[in-house]
# Entry
Amino acid sequence: MSANQRTLRAAPDTGLFIDGSWRDADDGAVREVVDPASGQVTGRVARAAAQDLDDALAAAQRAFGQWRQVAARDRAAVLRRAAALVRERAPAIAATISREIGKPVAEAEQEVANCADAFDWCAEEGRRAYGRLVPARQPGVTQTVLREPVGPVAAFSPWNFPASQAAKKLAAAIASGCSIILKGPEEAPGGSAALVQALADAGLPAGVANLVFGDPPMISGHLISSPVIRKVSFTGSVPVGKSLAELAGRHMKPCTLELGGHAPVLVFDDVDPEAVARAVAAAKFRNAGQVCIAPTRLFVQRGVYERFAAAFAQAAGAIIVGRGDQPGVQMGPLSSRRRLDAVRALVDEAVGLGATVLAGGAALGGPGFFFQPTALADVPARARVWHEEPFGPVAILDAFDSTAQALDKANDTAYGLASYAFTGRADRIAQVSEGMQAGMLGINHFALGVAEAPFGGIKDSGYGREGGIEGLEAYTVTKFVTQRTAA
Ligand code: NAD
# Structure
């Protein structure tokens, strides 16, 4: 099959974008894209064959040699034009995201805005990849530290934010002077396809950004073990992240791993429990809870526990669930039947062990993959939902008596991504800031994911950061040059 065939492009049928053009898979293989609100097939996505990946590797290698020579100012100009195109095309991109993954259109629009924001921020900050001069020990010697682009990147972005998670990786790689092969999410390919199209239309040279889909283990195995690839970036689950880290370690490649979370929220007795409960519910049920920083374990000081629990249950019960493209809908379906089954199993097990259902607790009937906004209390310690990220619309409530006890409960997990606390007291803020084991802490609000700040976790939640200057540095390597004035 010719490399230039263009049967599949962007949504509803999505192809591979390799070396500046769209193509079908070398063997013509596709998989179906399913609308999670109806269970109906709405499109197809190409499944890359080994030949496609080899073509992408060759393109990324060639393009890296050229792109790294392009001035940071000119790289920034391409990203800024792409950001403008993404904003112009936002309604269509958001409609595709909403149809493919089920989230309300308003949330999809916010996601698209975040993509443009990531492009703009990396464009600006990529111009400041400064090195430094280190004072030498002898006269006549100049010591320079340079930051150079690391090389072609293999990146893997997930389905829950099918565009903005891809945008973070594309933007940082491109701004730093790297080329990239991105494996986008097969469940919802249209968002990442729209981004690479915008980059190409903005003048990004062929081969700098390549997009593939297919069989995830086959693709990651092929790309990470190729000598062309110099860096790996993965956002997804803990088990897959660990296996990719092993593979990358075998080939001595640095990784950025943004894995799952099981975020605690500490609600102290000096806040308005009803107002905080409403804020927590809004954050919890965004994207049907399929958010790695979603608040899930809600620890509430005993004196305000009952009021908080009642208000949280009421807020959960009031959420309007439905198709993401229907006006007024606040929460869509889960992304797939597999996710629906996984969430149902966690809730059923907890209830079977004696948990109390404060709100929801069951799948909604019908053809799509809908699950009720759910709040559980009295969950026994051995229930899996305490230890496994539900990645769905499920929150667990528990009471605490002291700050030390709250921190013990919050830190009693293998995860360490996001965490939150609600209090106005300086002593509590200081104790929580010091004692919380997490990569991120939000105090009295939930806005952790901004382009200019480092985003990432500790413990099983991964290592490395996306966003902020740390996110860009991850796409560079340090070179030390010491020069003695010729005698
Ligand atoms: P999963 O483990 O099957 O897949 C997670 C992601 O990894 C998917 O995007 C998948 O395409 C990709 N993947 C799977 N195997 C791969 C491989 N060998 N090489 C490269 N990529 C591979 O999990 P799932 O059921 O699709 O999603 C649920 C879990 O994923 C949740 O528990 C959550 O922890 C995690 N997740 C996390 C984020 C995040 O933002 N950190 C996003 C999406 C999913």
About this structure: The pocket of nicotinamide-adenine-dinucleotide is lined by residues 156, 158-160, 185, 216-217, 220, 235-237, 240, 244, 258-260, 292, 338-339, 389, 391 (CB under 6 Å). The CA atoms of residues 91 and 234 lie 28 Å apart. The chain is about 40% helix and 20% strand. The longest strand covers residues 141-149.
